[in-house]
Every structure is written in structure tokens, then in C-alpha cells.
TrEMBL record, chains A, B:
Oxidoreductase N-terminal domain location: 7-118
Every Alcohol dehydrogenase-like C-terminal domain range: 171-305
Gene: DBR
Alphabetic keyword roster: Oxidoreductase
Pfam families, per the entry: ADH_N_2, ADH_zinc_N
Keyword Transferase among record annotations: no
Protein name as it appears in the record: 2-alkenal reductase (NADP(+)-dependent)
Keyword Acyltransferase assigned: no
Residues forming coiled coils: none
Species this chain originates from: Lasiodiplodia hormozganensis
InterPro entries: ADH-like_C, ADH_N_2, GroES-like_sf, MDR_fam, NAD(P)-bd_dom_sf
Amino acid sequence: MTSITTRQWLLNSRPTGAPILDGPDATFSLTTTTLPPLQPNQVLIRVKYISNDPAQRQWISTTVAPERFYLPPLSLGAPMKCSLLGEVVASTSTAFPPSTLVTSALGEWSEHVILDAAVCNPAPAADGGIAPTHFLGALGLTGLAAYYGTAIVAAAKPADTVVVSGAAGATGSMVVQIAKKLLGCARVVGIAGGAAKCAWVKGTLGADECVDYKAASFADDLAAATPDFVDVYFDNVGGEVLDLMLARMKMRGRVAVCGSMATYNAYEDGTRLRNWFEVVAMRLQLTGFVVLDWLHKAPETIAELVRAAQEGKIVLGDENEMVLETAFESKIWENG
Amino acid sequence: MTSITTRQWLLNSRPTGAPILDGPDATFSLTTTTLPPLQPNQVLIRVKYISNDPAQRQWISTTVAPERFYLPPLSLGAPMKCSLLGEVVASTSTAFPPSTLVTSALGEWSEHVILDAAVCNPAPAADGGIAPTHFLGALGLTGLAAYYGTAIVAAAKPADTVVVSGAAGATGSMVVQIAKKLLGCARVVGIAGGAAKCAWVKGTLGADECVDYKAASFADDLAAATPDFVDVYFDNVGGEVLDLMLARMKMRGRVAVCGSMATYNAYEDGTRLRNWFEVVAMRLQLTGFVVLDWLHKAPETIAELVRAAQEGKIVLGDENEMVLETAFESKIWENG
């Protein structure tokens, strides 16, 4: 095998607010490096797609102490981590011969990457309206987070009213559909930013209602959309939306805490909860979770989601664009 | 029965910050009123002791909507509610003849009060170092809240490290002892305000450590007192202490949310949680609770606590003074 050079994005600087695109403090820097020879049971992958998820914002800088974070922290100067989908172009693994399509949750923002075969999976067959990229989103970690958070952590039941924030995003769009179409929840309400996203959440995903958090009337709209209050809140955003939602929960309501996008770029502000006493008065339960805890169930869950998509029960949106918009934009490229 | 007049404190104005002692906006006003004749199955009580608990601050004004509060809201102009201990001086109930000592969780800040016999209980025998007033505190609602929050909501186990805020208060002082002496928790750490309270929590109540939240070094002291992190946090105060504690919890730690005293007089500030993402990263579970949900177990629990006190396992402090200091001061009187 000839020596391979690749371009890759490195973590150059830890942002304290929004990621910085240019200049000496730019969050990422583009470099070209020569990859080492393959060790046994490794694959060289030509990357076709990389993921850009809200969770990645926490990987590059977070107020959580490194030893308390759910993954080893990304070092300064290291290639940015991501999920990827790519084609094996060289291999010392019998499991993944050249030309195999693979996915991995331990990819990098690189054109070529060397991974241990143990952290790769064969890319599932993509047909019946399913695109390979869906395995980086709706059928990847974000979709799985939606599934476990809704079905297990919050234990949504058919009689329940479910609200999800970030409803047009990678995770939220699946929560809406898992709650409404797979679990048969009585009422599902999305929260999203802007009329276009709200129309998509209602019209395409099938939410009973979707409330625009950018509207001046948001608090009133949210109350109007939840007249009988809420059994389950799937929280992707934290911040003011969480605060308002605490006052919309039913007695013994459950909050699945998946993320707090509203504060990733504003640590010092924190999440200010004027309605915190609602937790006491209404006996609420808030439970944080990380999708990695259920990866042993992932194959069966992905199979269930694929089947639901092929039967037309759920829609697998091209949600990456929306995720980029809500989390951070950077000069990454598509190498497809 | 001759007509009885009584002095009583009425709710005159709902405070938005600290209760107001004087002037036209005073939170409470003293009045004299004539009580009506007894209806069947009622008692006229000469009040000996009334309670003044942190929870009462929420009864007189709270940001929680009235229909979402755990008790009917106290109306303006109504007598202030409390727990009481008093002596029956007239009765139309065979259960409570005159000269019976009774307690009730539905008392009033009045010298005399008429209550339905159904909401009264015979005052338990007070001996072996137990004073009647303990049934308004350590052996009343605050002590029961400590018990159910620690043993049931947080489900503290012998191997656990338990931290409690407001550790010198009515509830917290019992949490310390229930965790350490009754449940046998491995390590119990209190948080209290000032060296004197901390010394009492350690020396008298038996906490392994007590951290002074008023010290400039509080955050460092709290970390030093919890070197192996925390399984259970019993939260009486919310606010900054809760924020710091989120970063001291172990993986899958449990927070029993009993109150948020830090914000009762400062609604607009709310509880600002910079460490909210710890809930996700460490898979924390926060559960709000109200002691009223377990009143059916109260007789057996009080009997257990009385036994523990008589055996010298736990100390029943005169915690009312501390509660007054932390919650609010008003011109109430002792009529004993």
C-alpha cells in the first residue's frame, strides 16, 4: 500500500461561546497529514459522509470536568470526531474487505481515516427510501437517542401527551414520530424555531401541534398547545424552554433530559429556572441519559426504525442541514 | 358555650421578596375576631404551639399557579395556616373531649381555633426526652419529609454517600440522622450556614462532615468533603448550592428535591444552573416530592422515629429557631 495523505480538520481552540470560523483562535484548523501503515485488523476508509450533531459542541468544550464527561475529551490538535460513512479502500481485516461500505461512531472529519475494524459496522442496506446518510442521523446515534429517551427513559405511553423541543432537529424529528407513530401517544407537540420548521413538524412528521419558540407569543402559544398539560417532555435544549415546560407538566410528569443546546455557547448564563419549584409542587422527575448506554440494543432498534420507514410509518428527514443551523456552522466539506 | 374571641394573624399582602413586617404592605396583620359556635364533630382548641416552616413561605406567595400548588392557596385575609399543638377546651366530638392535647396540620396562627375533629390527631405521649413541640417538627411534617425523601424518593442505601443542604434546619437535621443512624449510610455530609451550625451538625447530629455555605471557600470545601462524589443529594435550598452539587454527583446519582429555600424570596432570579449538563453527562435523576403523599404511613414512621429518639439513636433538636432564621421572621408569639 502506498503512503496516503489526507486533509483533516483538527481542534485548534476550545470555544467558550460560539465556535470561531477564522483567525488564530479558529475552533478548527485544516491540515494535511500522512497516515501511518495499517496495523492488523484495521481498515483505511475513504470517507463519504461525516456527521455534525449538537452533541459535538460539548465534545470540543464543556463545563463538565473531563473525567465526568461521557466520552474521553477531544484533545487540542486532535482530528475532530464524528460518525462517518465511507468505503473501505485498504484492509487488514477479513470482516471488511476493500469496497465494503462501513459506518462508525468513532470517525473523524477527514477525507481518509484509519480505524480499528472493531469500531466499524457494515453500512446497512439502503433501499425503500432509505439513504446511506440516514445511518448517521435518523437511523444513527441521534435517532437512537430519540428512541431510548422516549420509550425507555420517559416511558411514554399511549395515553400520554408528549412535548419535544428541537422538534425539527435530528433527534427531535424522530421523537415526534416515535411518540406519535410507533408508541401511539395521544398527543404530540413539537417546539421548533420558525414557521417553516413548525409546518414541517406538523405536516410531514405528524405532530398534533408545533409551537414556534422564536415567536413573541411563545409562552402563550405553548400553553394553548398543551391545554391538558404534559406527561412527557423530551428536552433537547434546556434554558428558557425547559423553564416554561416545568410549568406545563402534569402531576408526576417525566422529563427526559437529552441535551441543553440553548446553553452550549453560553455557559456562564446557565439554565435559569424560575419555575424550579414546579418540580416539587408537581412531583416531577427529570432524568438525564446518554444514548451510548443502550448501544447493545441498537441493531434491533435500527431494524425496527428501518421497517417503520419502509412501511411509510415514519419519515427520515434530511435533518443535517437543520442540525448545522442550530448547533454550529463550520467549513466542513462533503466528500461524497 | 360562651362566645370566644381570639387574636389571629391574617395574610394581609403577598410578598414578592422577603416578607414585610410593618406598614400598609405588611405580609401579616393581627386582628381579633369572634369565633362561631361549634358545629357537630368539631373542637375548639386553645393553641399552645404553632409551626413556622420554610414551606409556609410558598403558601403565602409562589410562582406556581394556584391550581398547580400542592395545597389550596391561602386567600388574602385568611388566617395564616400552620401545624399546631393545643388543648381542646370545648368539643362536639366524642373522639376529643375537653382537655385532650391534639395536633393538626391544618392549624392557624391563632390563640384559639375551631377545627373539624377529622383533621386533628391526639398528641402522642411525650416522654423519654421528647417534647410536645417535636410533633410540630422533627416528629411532624418536616421530619416525615426527611424520612420519605431519604428512604423512599432517593432510596439511600448503606453504601451511599449522602449530602443534605439546610442540614441544621428542621428537615435537614433529620435527614442527617435518618441517613447516618437509621439507614446506616457510609458517609453523610451536611451543608449549613456558619461555623456554629456546622459544629452542631457534625458534633450533635453525627454528620461525617459539614460544609459552611457562607464561607468564601465553599465550593472547594464541598469538593474536599465529597472526594469520592455523592450518591444521594437531599436538596432543601435549590439555587447555587444545587448548581454546585450537580457537579459532585456520581454516575446515576439521585437528587430528592424537597424545596428551594434560596429562591423563595427571589423568584425572578430563579435557580441558575450552570452545571445543568451534568444531568445528562452523569445520567442524574432529580425527583420532586411532597410529604403529603405519604401521610398514610405517618403513624408507623413517627413511631419509628420516636423509638429511635428514646433509644438515643437520634437527637430531636429545637430547630424552630433555625427555621425562622432561614425562612422568614414575623411577629408571631408563643402562647404556651
